[in-house]
Specification:
The complex is a heterodimer.
Chain A (H helix, E strand, L loop, with lengths): L6 H16 L6 H24 L1 H6 L7 E10 L4 E8 H20 L8 H20 L3 H10 L1 H11 L4 H34 L6 H4 L6 H18 L8 H8 L2 H26 L1 H27 L4 H22 L2 H32 L10 H4 L1 H15 L5 H13 L4 H27 L13 H19 L2 H14 L5
Antiparallel strand pairs in A: 1-2
Helix pairs in contact in A: 1-2, 1-5, 2-4, 2-5, 4-5, 4-12, 4-15, 4-21, 5-6, 5-7, 6-8, 7-8, 8-10, 8-11, 10-12, 10-13, 11-14, 12-14, 12-15, 13-14, 13-19, 14-15, 14-18, 14-19, 15-17, 15-18, 15-20, 15-21, 17-19, 17-20, 18-20
Chain B lengths: L2 H26 L5 H18 L4 E3 L2 E3 L1 H27 L6 H18 L3 H19 L6 H32 L4 H6 L6 H17 L8 H8 L2 H7 L2 H13 L7 H23 L4 H21 L5 H26 L14 H4 L1 H15 L5 H15 L3 H27 L14 H19 L2 H10 L2
Antiparallel strand pairs in B: 1-2
Classes of the chains: A mainly alpha, B mainly alpha.
């Protein structure tokens, strides 16, 4: 049987094992690039294969309802930590997003990363393993471990290959995340001890810990620690300040992974761990969550409008878009939650594409200043075409993926909190303002500086076409993906009342 | 004394006797293979600890599984530190048999301290290795920093020895025995004289472990001593002192004041150590201050002793010592005529000397407690014990000061990998095989313990209550 193979372990550690492939190629960057991309592509193929198989896998029951695959082995019995990994529809979507994003990130940095290229590739593969681990862990301690491991490569990525105030940004990024994580670590241990006190079983396993009976007061404290850690990653207003700096100074590949995946680990953690573990506290937090999400949407959109650096603008718009994901989670209702999960993937594709595009422009013009450009439609039409399409996606134009996610989120939320939905509808207009301004100034307006720019090469075309196809697929026909996450979402929200 | 006893004592005999043999060998053939000889002796002490699994008790000393574990850890650390010293001392022109002989004497003293069963032996062991360090710290003749460090250590050390001795005398006066087991089992009322003695003993031990407020010697001594000596001083001597403290703790019985004192020591050490490390511009001083903070975490585990804190403390110390060996190891392999110690020295090191850079980076991540290094497992053990013991406030303060620590440890990584040197990069020294091995061993252990600490944790469960 398929399920008897350690498929998930392979999924997590394939990229890490791929690093060994790079060792003999330490001084041959071109081959190393191919090898690393080959590993990432193999991972993508593997994830795609799992996607094509998910209906088959669903028929075979696992230990937990809703899970397609599970693996469980003792790891550190003295601490009660087990190696428990599981794949359900939500994880599968995230796994697909991860493997795809890494292919994009490696491809987009093909030319851009020249110095210490093999070190860069190694770190990328290590990070892919870490992120896969985050999306598959069902043991809280294991989750925390992967959660921290993925930080180290990103820390180097920004610090070594970044530009501008890269060291300031990377330290800020690391310390912000660590601050939340360390408190979450205390909460994880506390939860573990409370559970051990009640049941006599020392475990960090999510399914067991969900049965811990906690008074509301305890739940509130523990949830607050989890919430803080996830909100920083999310990032929710006012914990977002690390993100624009990190994005601005990161290399393109770093930005793509940061926006596409690291932010998703925050929302994923909240969906997988925060809400199921502390349902009462989560309910009590809902008004705060809504407020922060809405504030984030408005604040980030207004700040985005005032940006002169294109990358910083997209970084702020990213905060705004994640605000919708936050609203969908806060509603904790099947339709809205499906929307949020879908939107997590969509945001990865759209924002990833925009960061790629800006990175490509930066490689050519060596500036990201909006005021430096203008009239690009006439000069580099292919680039402009893709930029226009992805900007439209970001604005939420129907037929493209963001619309589907945001629509589901708002449709699901409206019954519970009409006020929130009304306010977020206003918020939906705001990206229109700053994105139109961006597109108008960069693509359409008269040329302001005479720049000699080459249009996209075939590698860049391939990357953007792949992203565009995904964008259109989800925009036009999201049903297969929604089917895939349907059951886990129903189980999470309590059988779908 | 039976042959069994001799077998059990073999590691101590090898080390103590070896010290004399090295001195003699140096006199007979000056400049011979003294380091190789000393290394072989330490290695044979290590193997006799491993291969002669004999427990024995004799007056003043008892070879228990715990003391054998300590011996194993100490000799391993000693071996790495000796590998580092062999090349370093040649470069810094520290010749002669004094170094290896004193080195072996220090290890023997540490071994005695971990195996003592009465206060006198304990004192003897502790002061034997401290005495050896007075010499080792100032071993570079003509170095003003080394001399200053040696003098500071001597003054502080004799003060603490006096305090320790005074405490032991008071305890003896109160209870009329020096045997640890009898002292621990006498359920008499905690009379003031005994408690006064106990507190003095704790203060003396706080000096050895450089816990605040007895930490002031640490930064100067770590900085002034030759790097391989600091490598041993900051790891093995801390380990032996912790082992001795673990032997002493049962004395206090259920006296609640012990908890309060340790609580305060932990709090002050975590805060003062990590805050002071923040502003250092010299790596050795930074590591010294951070070791004060790290010892605070050990004390935090000791506060939670009833909740399995002892195991966590020993585990944490092993983890800390591994990282300390790697960090001071990097400093000593890079030091030429000058100690390689200011933070500017490390600019771009990760590319100039990949092995040293990687070892130092892993050590920094481990000290900062970031997975997949051993430091994370250590922090995990300590905080789990602290929360199980109900020390929420202290755990919270501890984790927040760990965040401060993340910053200054990361700064070293930043300097090594993300900044380029102002001066044109010269390639780093090429390391000889001894130095390469001495860096690879602790680095591998840090990663292995970070990924799979279970064997060591199981061992901990066997040897500690």
């Amino acid at each position: 049987m398929l399920a008897s193979y350690p498929l998930l372990t392979i999924l997590i550690f394939l990229p890490l094992a791929g690093c060994l492939l790079l060792l003999p190629l330490w001084n041959r960057a071109p081959f190393a690039r191919l090898a690393a991309f080959g590993v990432a592509a193999a991972e993508l193929a593997f994830a795609g294969w799992l996607y094509s198989m998910w209906r088959e896998l669903e028929k075979v029951p696992t230990k937990l309802p809703g899970y397609l695959l599970m693996e469980d082995t003792a790891w550190i019995p003295s601490f009660g930590i087990r190696y428990t990994v599981g794949l359900d529809g939500i994880s599968l979507l995230m796994v697909m997003l991860t493997s795809f994003t890494f292919c994009v990130a490696l491809a987009v940095s093909w030319r851009a990363i020249k110095e210490r290229a093999v070190l860069f590739l190694t770190l990328m593969l290590v990070m892919e393993s870490g992120i896969m681990g985050v999306f598959l862990s069902l043991d809280l301690a294991l989750f925390y471990l992967f959660w921290e491991i993925m930080l180290i490569p990103m820390f180097f990525l920004i610090g070594v290959w970044g530009h501008g105030r890269k060291i300031y940004s990377t330290i800020k990024f690391f310390l912000f995340t660590m601050f939340g994580s360390l408190l979450m670590l205390l909460a994880i241990i506390a939860l573990h001890l409370l559970h051990a006190g009640q049941s006599g079983v020392a475990t960090f396993a999510l399914p067991e810990l969900m049965h811990t009976r906690l008074p509301l007061n305890t739940q509130l404290w523990l949830f607050a620690a989890f919430f803080l850690a996830f909100a920083i990653k999310f990032p929710l207003f006012p914990l977002h300040t690390w993100l624009p700096d990190a994005h601005t100074d990161a290399p393109t590949a770093g930005s793509v992974v940061l926006a596409g995946l690291l932010l998703k680990t925050g929302s994923y953690g909240l969906i997988r761990f925060g809400y199921p573990l502390f349902p009462l506290a989560a309910q009590a937090f809902t008004p705060l969550f809504y407020t922060l999400a809405l504030l984030g949407i408005f604040y980030a959109s207004l700040v985005a409008f005032a940006q002169e650096d294109m990358k910083r603008l997209i970084a702020y718009s990213s905060i705004g878009h994640m605000g919708y994901v936050a609203i969908g989670i806060a509603a904790w209702q099947p339709v809205a939650l499906s929307g949020s999960i879908l939107q997590m993937a969509n945001h990865g594709v759209t924002t990833g594409a925009l960061f790629c595009l800006i990175g490509m422009l930066d490689e050519r013009a060596h500036t990201r200043d909006i005021a430096a450009f203008g009239g690009l439609w006439g000069k580099i039409p292919l680039w402009s075409f893709f930029f226009l399409i992805f900007s439209l996606t970001s604005m939420g134009v129907p037929g493209l993926n963001s619309f589907v996610g945001e629509f589901l989120i708002l449709a699901g939320t409206i019954k519970q909190s009409p006020v929130v939905v009304v306010l977020s509808f206003i918020g939906i207009v705001l990206p229109l303002i700053y994105m139109v301004r961006l597109v108008q100034e960069v693509v359409f307006q008269k040329e302001r500086q005479s720049l000699v720019l080459e249009d996209l090469c075939s590698r860049e075309m391939a990357i953007l076409t792949a992203l565009l196809l995904l964008d259109l697929w989800v925009g036009v026909h999201p049903a297969p993906l929604l089917d895939m996450i349907h059951l886990p979402v129903q189980l999470l929200t309590g059988g779908g009342q | 004394m039976t042959s069994r006893d001799i077998m059990a004592l073999m590691p101590l005999i090898i080390l103590a006797g070896g010290c004399v043999l090295v001195l003699l060998a140096g006199a007979i053939k000056p400049g011979g293979y003294l380091y190789e000889f000393a290394g072989a002796l330490i290695l044979s002490a290590l193997f006799s600890t491993l291969l002669l699994p004999v427990d024995a008790a004799m007056p003043g000393l008892a070879i228990t599984p715990f003391s054998r574990f300590c011996m194993l850890a100490l000799t391993s650390a000693g071996l790495v530190a000796l590998l580092l010293a062999s090349a370093y001392n040649r470069r810094r022109e520290i010749f002669g048999e004094e170094y290896p002989a004193t080195f072996l004497f220090a290890l023997a003293g540490m071994g005695v301290a971990c195996a003592a069963t009465d206060l006198l032996m304990l004192f003897l062991g502790l002061e034997a290795f401290t005495f050896a360090f007075y010499i080792l710290v100032a071993i570079k003749r003509g170095s003003s920093k080394g001399g200053e460090a040696g003098l500071k250590y001597l003054l502080n050390g004799t003060l603490s020895a006096a305090i320790l001795a005074m405490g032991m005398a008071l305890v003896y006066a109160a209870r009329g025995t020096l045997k640890l087991a009898e002292l621990a089992s006498s359920n008499g009322s905690q009379e003031p004289l005994f408690l006064a003695g106990g507190c003095l003993i704790l203060l003396g031990m706080a000096f050895k472990l450089s816990l605040v407020p007895a930490h002031l010697w640490t930064a100067d001594v770590y900085q002034g001593a030759p790097a391989p000596v600091t490598a041993l001083l900051s790891t093995a001597s801390k380990g032996a002192s912790l082992a001795a403290l673990l032997l002493l703790l049962p004395l206090f019985g259920a006296w609640h004041g012990l908890h309060d004192i340790l609580w305060l020591l932990a709090l002050l050490s975590m805060l003062a150590g990590n805050m002071a490390a923040l502003v250092q511009s010299n790596l050795k001083r930074m590591l010294a201050w951070s070791s004060v903070g790290q010892m605070g975490y050990v004390a935090l585990a000791l506060v939670a002793a009833p909740a399995g804190g002892l195991r966590a403390a020993v585990f944490y110390l092993v983890v800390y010592a591994t990282a300390g060996l790697a960090a001071f190891g990097v400093i000593s392999v890079l030091s030429d005529e000058q100690e390689f110690e200011t933070i500017e020295d490390f600019h771009g090191l990760g590319y100039r000397n990949p092995l040293a850079g990687a070892a130092l980076a892993v050590a920094m991540f481990s000290l900062a407690g970031i997975p997949p290094t051993a430091g994370f497992m250590g922090k995990f053990a300590v905080f789990a014990a602290a929360l199980r013991g109900g020390e929420f406030v202290l755990a919270l303060i501890g984790i927040l000061s760990a965040l401060v620590a993340v910053y200054f440890y990361l700064r070293i990584v930043v300097v090594m990998y993300m900044k380029t040197a102002a001066a044109p990069l010269e390639r780093g020294r090429t390391l000889n095989w001894a130095e390469t091995v001495a860096l690879i061993i602790p680095t591998l252990i840090m990663i292995l313990l970070g990924v799979y600490p279970q064997p060591l944790l199981e061992l901990m469960e066997k040897i500690l209550p």
